[in-house]
Amino acid sequence: MNNSEQPAIAKPFGWDFVQRILRFLLPFLFRMDVRGIEHLPDRGPAIITPNHVSWFDVIFMAAYNKVPPVTFAAEKWNKVPVINSLLRHFGQAIFVNRGAPDKQALTAALRALRAGRVLGVAPEGTRSHDGVLQKGHDGAAWLASRTDALIIPVAVWGHEDVIAGHWLRLRRPHIHFYVGEPFRLPPEARATRSRELKPYTEMIMHRIAAMLPPERRGPYG
Question: How many domains does the chain divide into?
């Protein structure tokens, strides 16, 4: 089944209201440079692959996505009251045990994609903190190769030191939120074994890096 044949994705209660609030507030808090959001999908199977700098990534993704993506969250947040409820409700979170491949989480992600959902996966696996792109992990490429999901690269930067570096100095940080052209892995990727996924991970990472300034591209410069 291709994307156009998939049913519309149901939104959690309150999603549209929260999104309207975020879009109203963001221009007051940041100087937003937003490009390419027309590429964000309204149905799946699709995988949004952003770089990961800080918790603000989640806010920007929630503000501009057409539908709420299923997201991964570290298992530690499942033990934090309120946050775990928000992640489950609005992020439809799949909680992941860090440090080793989590087969249960990958199975849940596969199930979501095959049901026509949109999945958010940060290929770096963890935050970079300084905004410089890190080496990518193979999770996004593995999921895309098993589902023929559309991949939508996203590059975000300018929010590495929002509070101390900007707000406490009464400055609005200049945030760039760029969405690239969607693409699919080549057909031969479907027969690729897990240990041979690196070229496809590199393909995804280079698409993200191409939208970042040269000094932030890290190993993909």
Answer: 1
Residue 20 lies in a domain: no
Q: Going by C-beta distance under 8 Å and a sequence separation of 6 or more, which residues neighbour residue 76?
A: none
Query: pTM here?
Result: 0.90
Q: Tell me the residue range of the domain where 63 lies.
A: 33-220
27 within domain boundaries: no
Query: In three state form, how does the secondary structure of the chain look?
Result: CCHHHCCCCCCCCCHHHHHHHHHHHHHHHCEEEEECHHHCCCCCCEEEEECCCCCHHHHHHHHHCCCCCEEEEEHHHHHCCCHHHHHHHCCCCEEECCCCCCHHHHHHHHHHHHCCCEEECCCCCCCCCCCCCCCCCCHHHHHHHHHCCEEEEEEEECCCCHHHHCHHHCCCCEEEEEECCCECCCHHHHHCCHHHCHHHHHHHHHHHHCCCCHHHCHHHC
Q: Is residue 1 domain-resident? A: no
Q: Is the pLDDT of residue 45 over 90?
A: yes
The pLDDT tens digits of the residues spanning 130-171 come to 889 999 999 999 999 999 999 999 999 998 888 888 888 888
pLDDT of residue 79: 74
The answer to whether position 26 is within a domain reads no
